[in-house]
């Protein structure tokens, strides 16, 4: 009676609470919120990053994602589990690459910095060019390059982090993509092909990369499709982590 406005406000809140669906819990919301805030114990996402044109992060360092000092106390297997668990909940591509395999990929990338990749579509294939820049691998569709040349924007960037390579024997990888052009399982297919062509033990497979870079007149794009189909990567892939196929 003394505060009718307060009384009406409390009644409105009570009525709203009754309308909430079965299973709704403000406590549950609170716990979920706290988990979201507490989760980045090892991760420091968003710190010290700069966004470049096209929405991709410029100079995306490992320190901007991971608390490197904290994980140094962990084993390689523990770091792998932390990395995989964190990114499995995100709509992106990620991997933990053995040091020896990354050494091979990087050595070959220095000699052959670009390659043509085939992405399976409902009808045929769409071709993408991957271009290495240090430990970053930028992808853009072939039609983009044909129409825009050197100004063609990246549609997918794979970031490789060798900071833990010597001490832990692993290289961490994650990605950013333009969701207007690619979805996760398509980006994953391209990422898997990097290991297929750059980390392969088959000389015939890597020879395609060498031919594309150094004897372009001899390069046959159908050979890429043949390798892709033979490997099984041309089939629909489960979204998420990059496979260990090579």
UniProtKB/TrEMBL annotation:
Pfam families: ATP11. Residues 1-22 are annotated as: Disordered. Residues 7-19 have a biased composition (Basic and acidic residues). Its main location: mitochondrion. One of its GO terms (biological process) is mitochondrial proton-transporting ATP synthase complex assembly. It comes from the Eukaryota. Keywords: Mitochondrion, Transit peptide. GO terms for cellular component: mitochondrion. PANTHER family: ATP SYNTHASE MITOCHONDRIAL F1 COMPLEX ASSEMBLY FACTOR 1, CHAPERONE ATP11. Belongs to the ATP11 family. This is ATPF1 factor. The gene is Atpaf1.
């Amino acid at each position: 009676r003394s505060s009718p406005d307060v009384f009406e406000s409390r009644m409105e809140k009570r009525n709203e609470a009754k309308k909430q669906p079965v299973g709704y819990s403000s406590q549950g919301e609170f716990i979920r919120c706290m988990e979201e805030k507490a989760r980045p114990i090892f991760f420091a996402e968003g710190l010290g990053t700069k966004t470049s044109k096209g929405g991709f992060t410029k100079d995306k360092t490992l320190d901007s994602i991971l608390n490197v000092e904290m994980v140094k106390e962990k084993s390689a297997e523990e770091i792998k589990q932390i990395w995989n668990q964190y990114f499995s909940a995100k709509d992106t591509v990620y991997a933990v690459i053995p040091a020896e395999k990354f050494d091979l990929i990087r050595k070959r990338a220095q000699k052959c910095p670009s390659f043509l990749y085939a992405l399976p579509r409902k009808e045929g294939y769409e071709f993408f060019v991957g271009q290495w820049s240090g430990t970053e691998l930028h992808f853009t569709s072939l039609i983009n390059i044909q129409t825009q040349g050197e100004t063609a924007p990246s549609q997918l960037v794979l970031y490789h982090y060798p900071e833990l390579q010597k001490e832990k024997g692993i290289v961490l990888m994650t990605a950013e993509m333009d969701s207007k052009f690619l979805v996760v399982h398509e980006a994953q297919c391209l990422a898997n092909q990097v290991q297929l062509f750059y980390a392969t033990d088959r000389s015939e497979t890597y020879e395609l990369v060498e031919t594309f870079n150094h004897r372009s007149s001899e390069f046959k794009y159908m050979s890429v499709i043949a390798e892709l189909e033979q490997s099984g990567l041309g089939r629909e892939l489960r979204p998420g982590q990059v496979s260990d196929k090579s």
